[in-house]
From TrEMBL, chain A:
Lineage: superkingdom: Bacteria
Protein name in the entry: Urease accessory protein UreF
Purpose: Required for maturation of urease via the functional incorporation of the urease nickel metallocenter.
Annotated source species: Halomonas icarae
Subcellular location: Cytoplasm
Amino acid sequence: MAQGQAALLLLADGRLPAGGYAHSGGLEPTVQAGRVSDAAGLERFLVGRAETTGFVAAAFAAAACERVARDDTAALSALESELDARTPSPELRSVSRILGRQLLRVMSTIHPHPHFARLGTVPHQPVVMGVAAAALGLGPRDAALAILHESVAGPAAAAAKLMRIDPFDVHAALARATERLDRLADAAANHADALASELPSRGAPLSDIAAEHHRSWNVRLFAS
Amino acid sequence: MRWSAKLSTLVPDKPAMEENSMAKTTPTNEHRALRIGVAGPVGTGKSSVIATLCRSLSDEFVIGVITNDIYTDEDARFLRSEGVLPAERIRAVETGACPHTAIRDDVTMNLIAIEDLERDFAPLDIVLVESGGDNLTATFSPALVDAQLFVLDVAGGGDVARKGGPGIGGADLLVINKVDLAEHVDVDVGQMVADAEKAREGRPVLAISRKRPETTSQLCDWVRQLYRAYVDGSHAPVDPGPMAPHFHATDDGGHVHSHEGGHTHHHHGHE
């Protein structure tokens, strides 16, 4: 972990211009439905997200990183379809590909690398994260940690706009989550060389339903 | 008249262009439209200005529009309902309640939207990008647009132009809209224009109303002129910048600089 720490910070930084600020990670419809209304609720939401879709994304990021590092290009498209299969909501599949495309656009511009040519035009965000990590000389665990960080930092940043909450409480929840994210990144990295079909498939059905409702709203602050 | 310029003729080896033209194209785009940003506070008439431009210029240019709404895709819907362009050439980008970020700090979403539009409807001549209504400090990054106009209106107060700021001071064109309302809100349009011209150090100001066709035709002429300059390579994008001109005290007495023209200053020792 000592090697590449600066590159990992670059990749995980919310200020990387990859359009993440337009998304709430499902927090907006969850707040609207009354399922999150205070700091404790937000913390439960963040933990739930990290443990379910965040962990799945982390495993796919780790797997993409591992595969591209050993030149297994064909395996990347298998990851794409396996991740589609683990994302029941069409809306969330679309969001993941939009964010992936944006991340690809940024990373291939700021740090050109032959790896990026192996991705399709609209790849899933975790797969791009894995490939970008490899392009920066990072390993599968780094890729997993970056996407886990993104999975909680995104909705945490959106919380201040969506609910009445003290920003210090938001970041206290993130601080308490750090050990969990490290643990999840370890576990995700352990799957890096597993068959795509054997990668974790934890689900968050309420998030899928909320995303579909959210898309139908006429007025919303966030794109997802 | 139908302009259709190839990218190769638009990005010549002119230092002025090279230095300033940060707007990127994808390798698949051999055609690159002139990209014009429209910024300004909420309710000043950005959508209306765009509708006017589309209505008046669509016989001469193939135009596409990207809107950036704060909460909805209402601006895109408004423009589609106006029937000024084929509906599919008007697309909305959702900016997550950060309209200023989407045109300045993190332009990736808008950049991709523009490139998609240019690819899907090639060859486009002009893409108009409407910022979500924000505040007086929000301006477009030169990475996103080639030129920008900033829209104020008389109903927002006659003193707003005098306050200056990056959009008012540095946009390629300042539009003072709804001048037909001036008498109802006790604003002296002549004075507002004079204030604006002073804040802009000679850059153009147009006072317009969609109810006075002679004023909107001036706006259209400005766009035609800009397009010609863009095509012949003489248009040099400028950056209104996030900062107003300011003074630096130094050992040799200090200097004033303006942060314009994509010119980058490296400040040492006093930040």
